[in-house]
Amino acid sequence: MIISFLPILLTAGSAPHADARMDWWREARFGMFIHWGLYAVPAGKFGDKTGYGEWILDSAQIPVSTYEQFQSKFNPVKFDPDAWVRMAKEAGMKYIIITTKHHDGFALFDSKYTTWDMMGTPYKRDIMKQLAAACKKEGLKLGWYHSIMDWHHPDYLPRRGWESRPALGANLDRYVTYLRNQVAELLANYGDIAVMWFDGQWEATYNHKYGQDLYDLCRKLQPNIIVNNRVDVGIAGDYGTPEQTIPDEAPGGDWETCMTMNRHWGYNAADKEYKSSTDLIRMLCDIASKGGNYLLNVGPTASGEFPPESIERLKEIGGWMKVNGESIYGTNAAPMKQPSWGRATMRMEGENSKLYLHVFEWPNDGRLVVPNVGSEPIDTRFLGRRDAIKPKREKLNLILPVPAKPFHEACSVVVLTFHGAPIIYADPKIEALSTIFVDRVSVEIDGGSSQLQTRYTLDGPDPGPSSPVYGRPIVLSRTTTVRARTYHRGEPVTPVAEATFTRVKPWPARHSGVLQAGLEVSVFEGQWKTVLDLASQRPSTKVLAETFALPDALVRDHVGATFTGYVRIPADDVYRFALSSDDGSQLWIDGKLVVDNDGLHSIVVNRGVVPLARGNHPIRVDWFNATGGARLALKWGRGAEPLAPVAKTSLGH
Ligand code: FHN
What separation in Å is there between the alpha carbon of 149 and the centre of ligand 1? Predict the structure, then answer.
């Protein structure tokens, strides 16, 4: 067994964040989403149903010609942009994102490219112009929500499945020009715009070229603008946008989750199911504790007013933010596992750090147990309270004395100030590119703070005080179980973590002859929920493809395909594959399932690792698209190489 130490590879990604453009956005952490448009006129009701929202045109199957009636009824005479902006600001929100155009195609601004805009309403004023002026006056950042999908424009495709409006003559490229022209208007006529928040990018007709071009247009017109990831089909974009959900763990990178206060984005008069202010405050803390932004929605009425329930919640959140905002603004994800009673955020302040503890569940014994903090704070106090508190140490925990009642029923915040970063006891992470290897593997152990020692053994017993201290990657050349445990001041402060790395034989090559270029592709027509159903069908056509990228003819609904051929493996090694698709897909190599990405879903990436010998190996990808975005991509990498698309020179049949 060879054990040697290699310098830790500094990958490109390890550089500090390179784009200061995002700084204000990370500082902000909290913004207001506004969904407003013609759909506020029916206010969720059509016929005898009252469950609609901003999708009412499609959900209630209202023909465009009928829906157009709402334009002459939209007259928001009570719209007071200054009041809206003040409510957002007083709630502690630092930016506003408003719908300039939702999927119904209606422009809430004065557009020279259509009459389907505000100037055709009795109100005859540009909503966006007024809101931009109010935001500028109050110093709030302003962003535009803009839908790529457009159910009104005659050139947008696809049509809604239920509608009879003819698609003959529709020209999507002409629509994209219209889309780009309106985006250009929005970035030219309203001053500094902080964010372009695109949406409705998921339909099969939209593609990465449109998306990248649109991203580039925004950055060209306003170079400091931030553009969300819905501008494209999973590639371009500055931050991720989960919706109506909060990730269980901190996903890393820049992300913002958007949520409704009740159950609808657009105004629905019947929907009184509003989240409580306590829930909204705790969500804000939870999101910030995972390094994310919270974009909280308001759906104004057709007259131009915020619903009273929204106003009430904004005020209550604002009261909490006045005292506790510093525990949210500009903070980073918790440095430790989330405590059972709440959440944590952290920020560095010069030489010191501040650890903010958001206490949701107040202890009833007067003792707040703060687990796994190994250093002593130089100051501890509740936000909004003058008096400092004195923590006591009990082994791995800090015990904070607290009064019988919390300071806020939703969340009380205690801030611990440390000299330098706090020492946090977290289970050591034993990591390598994969847990299998063909020749050797480099293993790294992350034990957290540099003031801690992580001791380890190889195929040995649990690490003890005399076991070697981890310092540099460990290179293994035979199957080995690595065990690690963190020590502080000579005492073990974490459980033992372990991981086994297995030396395996590479799968032998299966084809020694000469290959023809390309992959054979069998195309299927139909409606499926799983790729497995393709096997029982006869293909409608067979074509050749250079790589696993979808030919234009397959970028549509209700289609499936199997790509079959060989992959040329340059050397015995472990190869990592990432298969992304919308909808389902599977990757097979040497007749074995390597990546299972099956099912009905939007773009999802799943991965697999296989040991392959030098030579040609049978490879097959099965894929299908139901409706909405047709996507397929296969990337691979050998050893530590970054993943890249499988090039046509590596494929044959
Ligand atoms: O279809 C839209 C929906 O109406 C709303 O605008 C949300 C908010 O992010 N986005 C889409 C659904 O994902």
Answer: 11
